[in-house]
Specification:
heterodimer, A: 326 residues, alpha/beta, 8-stranded mixed β-sheet, 10 helices, 30% helix, globular, B: 334 residues, 4-stranded antiparallel β-sheet, 9 helices, 28% helix, binds adenosine-5'-triphosphate, binds iron/sulfur cluster, binds magnesium ion
Chain lengths: 326, 334
Amino acid sequence: MPLLEVHDLRTVFHTEAGTVRAVDGVSFSVEPGRILGIVGESGCGKSVSALSVMRLVPDPPGRIAGGRIIWKDRDLLQLPPRQMPSIRGREISMIFQDPMTSLNPVFTVWRHLREVLWKRFGLKGEAARKRAFQALGEVGIPDPESRLAAYPHELSGGMKQRIMIALALLCEPDLLIADEPTTALDVTIQKQILFLMRELQKRTGMAIVLITHNLGVVAETCDDVVVMYAGKVAEEATVHSLFRRPTHPYTKGLLESLPHKGLTREKPLPMIEGTVPSLVDPPTGCRFAPRCFRAEERCTREEPELLTKTVGRKAACHFPLGEDEP
Amino acid sequence: MSTSAPASDLLLESRDLTKHYPVRGGFFSRQAAVVRAVDGLSFEVRRGETIALVGESGCGKSTLGRVLVRLEDPTSGLLRFGGVNTTALSRREIFALRRKIQMIFQDPYSSLNPRMTIGEIVREPLEIHRMGRRSEQEQRVEGLLAEVGLSGEMMSRYPHEFSGGQRQRIGIARALALDPELIVADEPLSALDVSVQAQVINLLVRLQREHNLTYVLISHDLMVVEYLSDRVAIMYLGKIVETGTREDVFERTAHPYTRALIASSPVPDPAQRGEARPIEGEIPSPINPPAGCAFHPRCPFAIDECRMAVPPLEPVGKKSSPEHFAACIRKHEI
Ligand SMILES: Nc1ncnc2c1ncn2[C@@H]1O[C@H](COP(=O)(O)OP(=O)(O)OP(=O)(O)O)[C@@H](O)[C@H]1O
Ligand code: SF4
Ligand SMILES: [Mg+2]
């Protein structure tokens, strides 16, 4: 049974330009003990999906307009807001691309940890210090003693992200949502953090939702993948089947457009024409239709549903690529 | 590093180029310190090629780019463009040089003036350099926009009306306006959506062919670098640690840092996923780099000698091309 099930989630933002349908009927599920990647281009609704699960969408201008978010037999969207804190940070934790959205610049590392340890566990004094040490050690922070006294600005980007992970894991959540946790980091540091997340996942058995725009990061880290396009899910599959045989034309186009080993500029890269559509006034029918090499008349008329194609994979496309095709 | 290119092929040449910035020492200390952003670089760029400068934050690649286009003065060293020493030019001569060297920036959002129309943005360099009459300039702008795949009717619109990919095309059209010989492109793709990166990559390749352009590509994305470049220079803390042809650097990697970079770049293929441990440690501050080989604290191959002296950039030899150099005392064992 899935740990988290999101059904037909709709989140909108009221802006001067009109109503942005940022997340427009998104469904996906997270299996226990697995790492789900949500991948897509800027503005496709990855972060808003995650914020919706946490009930952290800024309101106004945002509003969750519909859907169900099933967590341990409860619909989080039906829960009175005052009950959310008992889930947020305890059962589901979230970390962000910019650690400074959650770290207080005038607090030391120790004070951040102390606060959680006291509020959530009633730990203080020597017991709290010991637990804090252990937490920093678990996320690979060398010399935890000296780091406890540091302020966030004295730490590198990678160290800050490690502190964020340590804080997020203090309560041993069942699910960690990480929104672009390595996007601001250098590649060698990104590798360290992704490695750490995989190790922590194995050690604790928690599930992870990893949000990224980087298909390489998905390939290296995730078990399952949801590909989003313009506020909708285009395709959902296990990581191996997605990369081996993408069935949605968007996924296929994206994968083919990446430069890869052995390819040089003698051969032009296959590319997807055009740009991502506006979410205020998206194309009718399939949102990818204006850019799709397989589009037919039906695609501009009728919106494709996210349907199960074969076991474990779904695609929202009238003409998905079949097993028989190259 | 020895010169292997015939002089006529040589477009840009740097010898012991440095750029140091003064900074305040520690938080409360008044003691002045120096960031060695670019620390004694020697390299050359040949006509018509693409050379990539690769490295992580603080390695000095963007500083080097700004020095190359002479947006900044080097602290010391020699920089020759087309045989002329550009470090000893008057302001007027630098102004003239700018026609031949242009830059494309990472951020297509902040690099275009929001109050100017697209037409004005692309025409501005022509105006500054007094190239032709107004009507001729406007005709040229239309041609430039067409070359980068934008229609002439977009001329009267403003940057905010365009997507990231379109803005980057506008930046490229502007860079082409003066018919430059060299274009320094600083992370031209990293602010773009994945689906438009390939469009801009293909555009850069086509323009290079059609205009016989020389590119200095500054990038941290090894996949893009391998696709686009003829030669590669890997930088770490202000120094080149390895340089050579694309094949030298990617197939016959000689420096442990290059290895670490390649091993760290995410590969979009789950079948190739490795469980190997990543290299440890953080990128040190360029204010106070480690002694000896600056990479030694993170290097899995480091031995005592690595701490003693800065290893010189020396030929790799063996199966490599004569232009393959690496700064590692254990390069032959790796
Ligand atoms: N506070 C807000 N006010 C108005 N619109 C918003 C707000 N937050 C998000 N949006 C809009 O919702 C849409 C989805 O945004 P979201 O942040 O989820 O994208 P994303 O997939 O996370 O993109 P990125 O890769 O850039 O982080 C976008 O069109 C965005 O402009
Ligand atoms: S539904 Fe049509 S337009 Fe949309 S992805 Fe499938 S083939 Fe392309
Ligand atoms: Mg986001």
